[in-house]
Amino acid sequence: MTGTQSVFRALSILRAFTPQQPTLTGPEVAEKFGFSQPTAYRLLRALEAENFLVFDRGSRAYGPGPEILRLAGVLLHRDAFVVQTQSSLTRLRALTGETVAVYWRLGNKCTCTQELPSPHPQRVEAGIGVGFPLTRGPAGKAMLLDLDEAGVRALLAESDIPAPVGGVDALLAELEQGRNRGYLAGVDETIEGAVTIAAPIPWVQPGLAVYTVSAPESRFDPQTRETAARTLVEEMERLRAILRKQNPFTM
Question: Where's the HTH iclR-type domain (predicted)?
């Protein structure tokens, strides 16, 4: 096995952990990826040695370790962003009663980095760490609102960007409407049965992060969407005003 193969295999193991499967045993890793058991254990122990995984002796299973948490902190706490937004998200969820989230652009995907699920039994959740293409769903498309037509077309020419479902012209028209309103809203192409409202976060670099409010389509009729959209935009403006007072030279 080459060094590059080992790296990709180790990364595959890390990606296998989900909220539905928070732990994995050596035999499970071997079966899932077609490794021999000695290879699976060698990779798992290497990840454990570097604190990317922890081993529970009772269950004989591995789970995500403190190094992953440290790296997540580097991403999430830059510019004290989480501290600034967590109370805002809590307020927004209370006002809308629905799931609220923050998505960051990481490469050519929008990735959920903060999420507060709705208290309703029937609700929409993406999951922290889950990423979607920029051309799928309101969250990703909202990251394109600051691009002009040439910028959008240049982005779509990149090999890892899926073509828009309705075509380029439809995407451009949707973005123009979003610029006029200050947000995008619609049936979410990334979460089945969901409607999402997304707006760019105005106090960070354009195209870098968005707020979202999401709900089951059955509960988010057009009037409810409009009310939630106004609430979303008002909350971001409220928070921006607070942050401007705290540090007027950065906004």
Answer: 4-66
Per residue in 217-240, pLDDT (tens digit) is 999 888 999 999 999 999 888 877
Total number of domains constituting the chain:
2
Same domain, 37 and 130: no
Angle at 128 between CA 123 and CA 133, to 5 degrees: 95
Q: Distance between CA 146 and CA 249 in Å, rounded?
A: 22
The three-class DSSP label of residue 195 is strand
User: From CA 77, how far away is CA 209, in angstroms rounded?
Assistant: 14
Q: pLDDT (tens digit, 9 = 90+) per residue, 90-139?
A: 999 999 999 999 998 888 888 888 899 999 999 999 888 888 899 989 99
| Same domain as 199, residue 146 | yes
- Among 69, 97, 117, where does a domain finish? 69
